[in-house]
Amino acid sequence: MADTDTRKRRGGGRAGAAARRGKAVIEQMPWRLPINVDKPTEPLDQEGVEAIHEGAMRILEEIGIAFYNEEALALFRQAGCKVDGDVVRMGRDWVMEMVAKAPREFTITPRNPDRTLKIGGNVLLFGNVSSPPNYWDMEIGRKVPGTREQCQNLLKLTQYFNCIHFAGGYPVEPVDIHASVRHLDVLYDKLTISDKVMHAYSLGKERVEDVMEMVRIAGGLSDEEFEATPRMYTNINSTSPLKHDQPMIDGCLRLARRGQAIVVTPFTLAGAMAPVTMAGAVAQSLAEALCAIALFQYVRPGIPCVIGTFTSNVDMKSGAPAFGTPEYMRSTQMTGQMARFYGLPLRSSGVCAANVPDGQAMWETSNSLWAAVQSGTNMVYHAAGWLEGGLIASPEKFIMDCEILQQIQRYMEPATYATTADDIALDAIRSVGNDGHFFGIKHTQDRYSTAFYQPFLSDWKNYEGWEAAGGIWTPERAHHMFKEIVASFEAPPMDEGIREELAAFVERRKAEGGAPTDF
């Protein structure tokens, strides 16, 4: 009877939304893996694709890539590549043969199999902000070094929002934990606060091995089960121009040998770390990524690999990085074309150069997110919470970004472009004719609650209504929402025996010293 009464009382607009969400802080879209139904934007013609490919291959054949990793150099020699000191030159036939072994699509299965992700095809996935050393929120009002509590709170947002599909690196670096054991505490927090797909930093063998073991324990898996299918992933950056460092390649080789997924993302800023021309920057970025992917395929053919793009430009007046620019958008679209040419899934990012969650932050982030859509990206890193070119994580920005992510998801739903007889709605049009309106007719009443995207953060009241409600600007609304979400957060279930095993592993590894550092 109570349910019936609720349905009778429920109205539209915000009152209806409040009734539908019950005790939840917001009414959000359900968990889903969005399907990108649009054709990708492809600025390159066939000659352009061939020209960029030729440029990337000539970089690998004639100029070479430095690998500061002795194991990698030995493997390249074994494969017949030319190794001159740290610099490796490799023939295009070998590179293309190796890259062709990487799967076009694969899955990653976290501790909650209901959160399994499909990587590749036309699936579009979003991840949280990763790795900023600093934090900003409206209560503090200034940029501060990250802490474990702030990291935990951002992880709660990562778990809470259904439009966030994977937990990338630390959403803010908790510098109040010593670097030797930081990975142990943060991975314990990540695995207990969230049940989504996890990431490992490839920063030394101890960190990689510890994270793999913790993900295995959290999933209740044997070694064989862990290695049978990807359960986690890493993301590495080349050191542009034309270098790969020791720890990142080492971490990838360890993950590859245990069947885990690898994302290779050169970080190239045109005009500083790459040519000032976007085609040159993209060609260099591709060369830096393809050589590493070829190495991993040589070690373990068929290991899941994703090619990443992080090609933007610097401000030529100041030298500062710029993000969400027209050039950033075009480089992302071009790399998407090339990823399809190579048969690899694509990673890009949701980024901005703004310092606080203001208008600049949102238009630059929106540009970068829509470039991800247009490029056919499969994994969008830093999709929520990024500020100051990746130096600041903000919970207000996180929530504001999630509004955009939900809008992108809604944009992709078949309901927005369906053409059935019900959608064409001739009977409804006939019933209204040329002297009525559509608010009260049955066709509208049957669909009003689901017909259009309903925001959880945007305020659609007119100015007078907004002013009467307190005149609260968007970041402040997001701040209040952040506080409510954190206060009411409930962690996903975990078997108590597994939790204890995880905690015991962390304590043992701390007692052993964790990962070596020079301080």
UniProtKB/TrEMBL annotation:
The keyword Transferase appears for this protein: yes
Region (Disordered): 1-21
Keywords: Methyltransferase, Transferase
Family: Belongs to the trimethylamine methyltransferase family.
Gene Ontology MF, one: methyltransferase activity
GO biological process terms held by the UniProt record: methanogenesis; methylation
Protein name stated in the entry: Methyltransferase
Name of the top EC class for this enzyme: transferase
EC numbers: 2.1.1.-
Keyword Methyltransferase: yes
